[in-house]
Write a structure and sequence with these properties.
Helix content is about 65%, strand content about 15%. The protein contains eight helices and four strands. A four-stranded antiparallel sheet has the order 1-2-3-4, with no helix packed on it. Strand 3 and strand 4 form a beta hairpin.
Amino acid sequence: MVSLIESAQSSHPRLESAKAALFQSRAQANLDGANLSPAVSGNAGVQRGNSLGLTDTAGAALIATQQSAGFDMRWELDLFGGTRAQIDASIHDANAAENQWYDARISLAAEVATLYCDLQFRKEMIARYNQEVSSMRETLKLTRLKVKQGITPSNDLLGLTASLSQAITNQQSNEMVYRQGIVSLAMLTQLPPEDVNRIIEQSDGIADFSGNFAYSFPADVLSQRPDIRAAEHRLAAAISRVGVAQAARYPSLSIAGMFNINKLTVGNHATSNQIWSIAPSLSVPLYNAGSLQAQEDKAWAAVSQAEADFQVVLQQAVEEVETNLIGVMTYQTLTEEAKNANKDYARYFEGINQSYIAGRTSLLELENARRQYLQSSESYYSALLEQSKSWIRLYKALGGGNALSSNQTGTTL
């Protein structure tokens, strides 16, 4: 199962989409961070010709070369923290995207594990029905001999034939579902179906989680859930954007500057000069018809929404952990009981089958014992399947064992 999960997580389009969203968020954070620094651009140029309007004493146009080089600078000072608040919001957005990527990985792993368990269940049921069909065919041969000898009525032969047809139908139905599951798992893992089938066939079957487990967890375990951390970062980003909206209502100060060196060459004569300037600029919002206040109100509303979303995610997480803990504990008991019942029914059927071969038991008793054994086998493997699925759901509900800290960024993907 581990190899299937690793294959799915290495190339599934769902994760590629989440990864692209993460890279976009990180790029935006870097872009916003650049606004704290001055923007400087350089320029250089050269011009040669007689178009500069220079003439000699005879009035003829002179060929001159003009060269220039310099730079321009602009810097908007972060007087009231608006730029810093925007950077903080972008960093939280990037952290939220990173946790969403982890959440997608965990969901995909749980999906692969669930489908893997479904296939193991179908594999067990196919083996049981194969065994059942083989046994019923042997019984059919014996019954035909008994009917021919007049020991058994012919109606028993009709009933046994119908039961065999039903068993073959169930066998083929499980094989169909198994093949469909192989295709679905192949699409998830991006592996050829024949490779997936080989892995399933070579595996040991449904895992039995019987044993003693701790059925309680500290509350801070929920903090490792990526969806909770993502909601927390979205709330923090919304709060930071309130600071952006508030800073926009205050004056802003920017500084522009330039420095140029010019050189003019005419024949063997050259002159040069330097030009520079610095120009601070103050912008004060005087009248905007309430748009800046509306932007701040909108930012506060976004905070309220993000806070409510965080509470919803948190409550859902608690509910998922509690319900799946109940499921794990319940199926722990059910699996043990179903396992014991299946062993008893197996011994019971074997005894009845030997009695039928010896002529001491009727076909009706044999078929009742066979049906009870088959039903107990299906009940046991169904309970085992649901027990495994409960553990998978609990794994996902607890955050998949993800240890990414709440403030970690820059994870290599």
